[in-house]
Amino acid sequence: MENQLPSLDELKANSFVVRLPLRVKFRAVVEREALLLQGPAGWGEFSPFLEYEPAEASRWLAAAIESAYQPYPEATVQRIPVNATLPAVSTEQVGRVLEQYDAPHTIKIKVAERGQILQDDIARVAETRRLYPQAALRVDANAGWTAQQAVAALARLSEYDLEYAEQPVPGIDDLARLREDLAARHIDLKIAADESVRKHTDPLEVSRKGAADLMVIKAQPLGGIRQALQIVAEAGLDAVVSSALDTSVGLGQGAALAASLPELKYACGLSTGTLYKDDVTEQPLLAEAGYLQVRRPGVSRQKLRHYSVEPEGRQRWMQRLESCYAILAGQDLAQRPLA
């Protein structure tokens, strides 16, 4: 199946749609929906967020098909370092959330949350630094600041010895200008590009324009492991592998991606399984002592039934599957040589 798409009917017949509860609100949701796909190589996950249109979501489907129908590349390591992820919670919740993680040596802190102010971010980062004085800290704004806000915010937050700031502003040109502004103010802080890589039609533009020091890569949004590895190789930037709030199925694909990189300089954002109250497997992919094992998790049929969505929810996902499949089928046809 490496060079040919499976049929749409085959994908539908082997698709299971679940809705899993989260421990805390993340991206404004308390439940996470995902379509799990069973294939000859194992399981794949198709879980683009509900607001994503087919053109963008089709890459997530390509990743799911790759995972279900192709073996993972040979791993260079058997376990990878991972960071804890702290949502934009109140200062009082910081300790409780981070206690869910096993020995966090690296912590990614969400900032620039809609409805909050800079002082909320500062308080959250300061409390994290107080509780974990030796940990490497990084912040993720999810493109939530304007250029002016980002300079002011990062000037304050950099006082807490940050490893890097992830996607402070939306555009690639804005990222490039932000790096220049920080340098002019002698603020020594690396910038990582996330949305400007995974949501852009040309993920290599970040590298060409010098808009980031490193890039965040995710298996699903980039179309799978092999596509992500190609982007990293062509960009020539250091990479951080992260998740898209995946279930253990998607986290397994992310771990395989991380284990396939030529070099892994940064802890990966693949410990988000801790944010789930339950998962689709009896053995969730969770970190131990700050490291994640590289493996394909099995899927529990009992959990698939327990967390299965209602018929209307499944129909909605089947429609998404059809729309994304049509895009992939068109690309596949365009790439085939003429007879």
Task: Give a short summary of the structure.
With 339 residues, this protein is an alpha/beta fold. It folds into two domains: 100 residues, 2-Layer Sandwich (Enolase-like, domain 1), CATH 3.30.390.10; 215 residues, TIM Barrel (Alpha-Beta Barrel), CATH 3.20.20.
Protein traits:
339 residues; alpha/beta; Enolase-like, domain 1; TIM Barrel; three-stranded antiparallel beta sheet; 12 helices; 12 strands
Q: How many strands, which pairing sense, and closed or not: the largest β-sheet?
A: 7 strands, parallel
- Structural class, by secondary structure, is alpha/beta
The radius of gyration computed from the alpha-carbon positions, rounded to a whole number of angstroms, is 20 Å
Which CATH architecture of the largest domain is right?
Alpha-Beta Barrel
Beta-strand share of residues = 15-25%
Uncertain regions spanning at least 5 consecutive residues: none
What is the fold-level CATH name, i.e. the topology of the largest domain?
TIM Barrel
Distance between the first and last residues' Cα: 20 Å
Strand-and-helix sequence, N→C? HEEEHEEHEHEHEHEHHEHEHEHH
CATH superfamily of the largest domain, by name, is Enolase-like C-terminal domain
Structure description:
The protein has 339 residues and is an alpha/beta fold. The chain is built from twelve helices and twelve strands. The chain has a seven-stranded parallel sheet with strand order 5-6-7-8-9-10-11. α9 packs parallel to α10 (248-258). The longest helix has 25 residues, at 311-335. The radius of gyration is 20 Å and the shape is globular. The model has no long low-confidence stretch (mean pLDDT 94).
